[in-house]
Amino acid sequence: MTTRRRQSGFTLTELMIGMVIGLLLLAGILEILLGNRESFQVQQQQAALQQNARVVSYFLDTIVAHAGYYPDTFLDTERVFRNGGDPLRGEDGNFDEVTIRFQSDGALNDCGGGLVDEDVISTNRFYVSDTDDDGNATLLCQRSLQQADGSAVKRADGSTVGDSFLPLIENVSALSIRYGMDTDEDGSVDRYGDAASVKAVSDFDRVHSVHIQVVLASEGEVLTTARDANEDPQFKQTLFDDDLELPSDRRQRVLVDRVIALKNRLP
């Protein structure tokens, strides 16, 4: 007589319970992966914001400090820069702008990133483009080159080197500039003012330093909650004691604050 062995297995209920447990575990793993991905993206944007701040500081510290430089100290400033404008000039606006001129000795860089040929005068105008829907804009540099006699700079093939419009940094929320003036001509700065104040008092020939504040924003939203300066004072941003109106969003912002001495104006 043959005995039949009963085959054991999972019941439908057990299978359903197993599937539910598996789905719960999978959902937890996916949540961890998505959280890690979001955290990585936030860290990337924060790192990019800090890098942009370093780039802005480099350009401003390097180029603005060149204002009025010329290698032949036996000449006077008026003779060197008699063609094309003053060594330093500023304009006020929603975004301020500043123009720097210097004559290279062959070892100076301009905002184009390369060395300027010897005796060539480089003009660098830092300004900000129109804002987008989020109130941010791009910091640009208009670079012009000319010979000391005012003639055009030529390439090796004989063509003329024209103006270059170079984007430097995106997501600029604000740019404000103040100028340190020596109004009593004692060799030191005794007051700061905007471009209009400089023109009203002494023009730019008495400016010995430039104080620049730039507010940069992250590319995307990285904060956990939206910032609203009207409701939360910790998000209030000021530029030279003036409150800055910023949109209510989750973008992180950083202030770049630089005071640059004009070495060629120091006694």
Q: Can you give a write-up of this model?
A:
With 267 residues, the protein is α+β, with helices and mostly antiparallel strands. It has one domain. It is 24% helix and 31% strand. It contains three helices and ten strands. It has helices at 12-64, 77-80, 195-201, and strands spanning 88-91, 97-103, 121-128, 137-146, 164-181, 191-193, 207-221, 237-239, 242-244, 251-261. A hairpin with a 2-residue loop joins strand 8 (237-239) and strand 9. It is elongated and about 110 Å long. Keywords: Membrane, Transmembrane, Transmembrane helix.
**How do the helices and strands follow one another from N- to C-terminus?**
HHEEEEEEHEEEE
What proportion of the residues is helical, as a percent range?
10-25%
Classification by helices and strands: alpha+beta
The largest sheet is:
8 strands, antiparallel
Number of helical runs?
A: 3
Number of strands: 10
The end-to-end distance, rounded to whole angstroms, is 119 Å
The fraction of residues in strands falls at: 25-35%
User: How many domains comprise the coordinates?
Assistant: 1
Anisotropy-based shape: elongated
Low-confidence region ranges: none
Q: What is the C-alpha radius of gyration, as a whole number of Å?
A: 29 Å
Mean pLDDT: 83
Organism: Spectribacter acetivorans
InterPro entries: N_methyl_site, Pilin-like, PilW
Transmembrane segments: 12-34
Keywords: Membrane, Transmembrane, Transmembrane helix
